[in-house]
Amino acid sequence: xxxxxxxxxxxxxxxxxxxxxxxxxxxxxxxxxxxxxxxxxxxxxxxxxxxxxxxxxxxxxxxxxxxxxxxxxxxxxxxxxxxxxxxxxxxxxxxxxxxxxxxxxxxxxxxxxxxxxxxxxxxxxxxxxxxxxxxxxxxxxxxxxxxxxxxxxxxxxxxxxxxxxxxxxxxxxxxxxxxxxxxxxxxxxxxxxxxxxxxxxxxxxxxxxxxxxxxxxxxxxxxxxxxxxxxxxxxxxxxxxxxxxxxxxxxxxxxxxxxxxxxxxxxxxxxxxxxxxxxxxxxxxxxxxxxxxxxxxxxxxxxxxxxxxxxxxxxxxxxxxxxxxxxxxxxxxxxxxxxxxxxxxxxxxxxxxxxxxxxxxxxxxxxxxxxxxxxxxxxxxxxxxxxxxxxxxxxxxxxxxxxxxxxxxxxxxxxxxxxxxxxxxxxxxxxxxxxxxxxxxxxxxxxxxxxxxxxxxxxxxxxxxxxxxxxxxxxxxxxxxxxxxxxxxxxxxxxxxxx
Length: 499
Prior knowledge:
Blueprint (H helix, E strand, L loop, with lengths): L12 H7 L28 H4 L22 E7 L7 H17 L3 E7 L2 H13 L6 E6 H5 L9 H6 L9 H6 L13 E10 H6 L12 E3 L5 E3 L2 H11 L1 E2 L15 E7 L5 H6 L18 H15 L7 H5 L15 E7 L13 E4 L3 E2 L2 E2 L3 E8 L6 H12 L2 H7 L2 E2 L2 H12 L9 H6 L15 H17 L5 H18 L3
Parallel strand pairs: 1-2, 1-3, 8-9
Antiparallel strand pairs: 3-13, 4-9, 4-10, 4-13, 4-14, 5-6, 7-8, 11-12
Helix pairs in contact: 3-14, 17-18
């Protein structure tokens, strides 16, 4: 992911709609302010250009510089950029990788075909609709892939045929791509585990112990008692770490919530599903695949999130979050005025602004269970490919390419490569950061992932954004009634069979 360009705004409808077509982070770091891509059903009609595999008419592709296929070559089209990959410096490397493949694999010609992120979903919809889709798509996150649910090839036969070693990946990451009865639709590549980012100096100033770095651990309170490191404990600590302009914290009489200068807790708020996933893995879809359910843990997380803003005042409000004078780089933790923040490893793009005293800790548990929301990117093969064997040869090449992995700033899914990657991150910081926290966090990834398939995927995301915006901008709501209303509206969308 192009982390340095990332400017997330989950409160803005355009961002959430765009996020339906990408990863981390399920979100595109380089195009979060772009115009929304339309749903697949609203894609423009295909023409002969699309049917022949040429750039999609009416949607301008990124100019390519690659070589032409030789007569007799099997051409494999590598489609980008549903997630990251469209920045000019990235395209240059991607073209070089394609040429490196062509040099080393006579008989197969790899052609890189890139579209700007904000246009990529529409262009791919047109190509698939015309029967002229590409062979490989990526890098793409779970959410971006689910915008094309049912279009991905089950790789299990090719994995077995080529004796591809899946044991090099943690079982939790393999499972991310083997849900919903579609087979093994992906192979792990770049992973973005989440952790708790915190500012050690703010804990020291408040006379508090730092949050634990060990997962499923305990915390020593100011009174000397040892308690589970859970969300209840995190709330109590966050109240002490929330301070007004007069130096009073949120536990003290006379605390002024209208003039806060330091906040104790910032949730990862880009997606309501994601807010819930930090508490426990879940899905909106019941076992029948068409009935809406609200996971109990997600509802609890939303109450915690809402109360944190409007009752406890430990988190910034929606308008504060969107205020670029206060929050110019996308997340309040980067301002140096937030003590704790749940986020993904890719958010290191902005943490230098928070100062040289931040570190990583384990996320809290809920009802004795710890879950860390998870982002991941990979390359996928479309079902419609006419050359699955050659496409899998290309897939193996891309998955093994360290230049691309560095380009996308993802932690390798291959466990043997992770230590070296994390050590390379340390070179950018003066303080010693416990990167192992993030590595261990992979074991607590939410499975099923919060971005996994649900009916009417894109329309449901629009609905979630509406409620997210309302909850973060309006005090005094009856949140149980709000959740019930959202569920009713979501079911109506699913019953109508939206995109």
